[in-house]
Specification:
Layout: H1 7-17, E1 20-22, E2 34-36, H2 38-57, E3 62-64, H3 74-79, H4 81-84, E4 86-91, E5 98-100, H5 101-108, H6 120-129, E6 146-149, E7 153-156, E8 164-167, H7 173-177, H8 180-186, E9 193-202, E10 217-227, H9 232-250, E11 257-261, E12 271-279, E13 282-291, H10 295-304, E14 310-311, E15 318-319, E16 322-329, H11 330-341, E17 342-346, E18 352-356, E19 367-371, H12 377-387, E20 393-395, H13 401-411, E21 415-419, H14 421-426, E22 428-433, E23 439-443, H15 444-454
Parallel strand pairs: 3-9, 19-20, 19-21
Antiparallel strand pairs: 1-2, 4-5, 4-6, 7-8, 9-10, 10-16, 11-12, 12-13, 13-16, 14-15, 17-18, 21-22, 22-23
The structure holds glycyl-adenosine-5'-phosphate (GAP).
Glycyl-adenosine-5'-phosphate binds next to strand 10, strand 13, strand 16 and helix 11.
Length: 457
């Protein structure tokens, strides 16, 4: 990571190279929504693929689901979201900016006061006593604290006036809990086993921002491990390790990661922690790991009226398993990986190159094929067509070779292959490594395996 990295640099690179565009761009955008472009969608898909590979494909006791975004509204009563998924908000009467009261206190006290422990009345009293000013305009003229609901509501129904409220899910986890017994029975799964899901979640955040960090629509990758109650603490410790290992294996440096154990636990949690990443905006949550006890299954059992008890086939014991949850945002992880990979390197001759040192597995393109001259394009396209059967390859014949290398460096392509006149004679090509910029000559027949060997996760 470039030590002088700013979020603006990442945003600009993303816009100019086709990673991420502002949502509804031609209409002037739509605040805090983002569209992934041709290169960004490949990057995010590869990140999701890596997560799925680790937590489903290579975890023999884990199973995937893809549950509906719109769920029976009672699900959200059972989960506690309709009652308590809200943040304390205050509006500045002067500049009309909206803030979370807890964030105001945290920033004002420079982290010495933990507002999680305070009631709304206590937060309001603290803000009044210290005359905490609006961070935007410096005024001290606040509305009272009000609870701001974070779930997006929509309605279902065909007759005007007879519509039922439904919610866009604010987390994917509930789709895993309600399918606990469906998965257990059909997969003949034995506790401990996991259910994983990747999908969109929606939150009407009070303070979205910082590019992909906090948005109102985002993707989550969530894994719920269902285990025996007396095993849950050990599994929680194990999932802390697994989450850390995934983060470092995919490309985040350990020195930019740290655990943050929660002092105050949500009503359902027995233990909880985040892994934080050192974003350009400071240390922030990357993912969460929670020991949720039997809260979720017992609530769904109560609200649905259906037994969710698990029958242990060996002991014949019936019980509600505990849940250990590991949850990470795909967009937030994409942002962290872009920040980590970004570098500006001084080159001989005074030039600088921007390069993304992405793990080759997640790089949007694995290779770019470049004919030295347009007259070599037929041979180059033959090589491209062959490699594109196995992985994403790019084809570029525009501009000098140096410029083409720079373009690929900026989107993190690990290999560039140049087709020159010798290629026509001996069927060999030059392959250039993104990180070392070293070049070597290899036979076209070896190219596919050479690259496949390097893009393993
Ligand atoms: N099921 C548990 C759960 O949803 P969370 O801490 O609210 O827990 C888990 O969210 C992860 O989802 C976060 O660590 C973060 O990576 C991602 N996330 C949450 N809210 C987000 C938002 N508004 N924008 C982008 N990512 C978000």
């Amino acid at each position: 990571m470039d030590t002088k990295l700013t979020m603006d640099k990442i945003v600009n690179l993303c816009k100019s190279r086709g990673f991420v565009f502002p949502g509804s761009d031609i209409y002037g955008g739509f605040a805090n929504t983002w569209d992934f472009g041709p290169v960004g969608v490949e990057l995010k898909n590869n990140i999701k693929k890596a997560w799925w590979k680790r937590f489903v494909q290579e975890s023999p006791n884990s199973y995937g689901v893809d549950a509906a975004i719109l769920m029976n509204p009672t699900v959200w009563d059972a989960s506690g979201h309709t009652k308590s998924f809200a943040d304390p908000k205050m509006d500045c009467k002067v500049c009309k900016q909206r803030f979370r009261a807890d964030n105001l206190i945290e920033d004002y006290s420079k982290g010495t006061v933990v507002p999680d422990q305070m009631t709304n009345e206590e937060m309001q009293a603290y803000i009044a006593e210290h005359k905490v000013k609006c961070p935007k305009c410096g005024s001290y003229d606040w509305t009272p604290i009000r609870q701001f609901k974070l779930m997006f509501e929509t309605s279902r129904g065909t007759v005007e006036g007879e519509k039922d409220v439904v919610y866009l899910r604010p987390e994917t986890a509930q789709g895993e809990y309600v399918n606990f017994l469906n998965v257990q029975r059909t997969a003949r799964a034995k506790v401990p086993f996991g259910i994983a899901q990747i999908g969109k979640s929606f939150r009407n955040e009070i303070t979205p921002g910082n590019f992909l960090f906090r948005t109102i629509e985002f993707e989550q990758m969530e894994h719920q491990l269902f285990c025996k109650p007396d095993q849950a603490l050990a599994e929680y410790a194990e999932y802390k390790d697994k989450a850390w290992k995934f983060a470092t294996d995919i490309g985040l440096k350990p020195e930019h990661l740290r655990f943050h154990d929660h002092d105050k636990l949500a009503h359902y949690a027995r233990a909880a922690c985040d892994i934080q990443y050192l974003f350009p905006i400071g240390w922030q949550e990357l993912n969460g790991i929670h020991h949720r006890g039997d809260y979720d299954l017992s609530r769904h059992q109560e609200y649905s009226g259906k037994s969710l008890l698990y029958l242990d086939p060996i002991t014949n014991e019936k019980y509600l398993p505990n849940v250990v949850e590991y949850s990470i945002g795909a967009d937030r992880l994409t942002l962290a990986l872009l920040c980590e990979a970004y570098d500006e390197e001084a080159l001989e001759g005074g030039d600088t190159r921007v390069v993304l040192h992405l793990n080759p597995y997640i790089a949007p393109y694995k290779v770019a094929i470049m004919p030295l001259q347009k007259s070599l394009s037929e041979k180059a396209k033959e090589v491209y067509n062959n490699l594109a059967k196995y992985f994403m390859a790019d084809y570029d014949e525009a501009g000098s070779i140096g410029k083409r290398y720079r373009r690929q460096d900026e989107i993190g392509t690990p290999y560039c292959v140049t087709i020159d006149f010798d290629t026509l004679e001996d069927n060999t090509v030059t392959i250039r490594d993104r990180d070392t910029m070293k070049q070597e000559r290899i036979a076209i027949s070896e190219l596919k395996d050479y690259i496949l060997d390097k893009i393993v996760f």
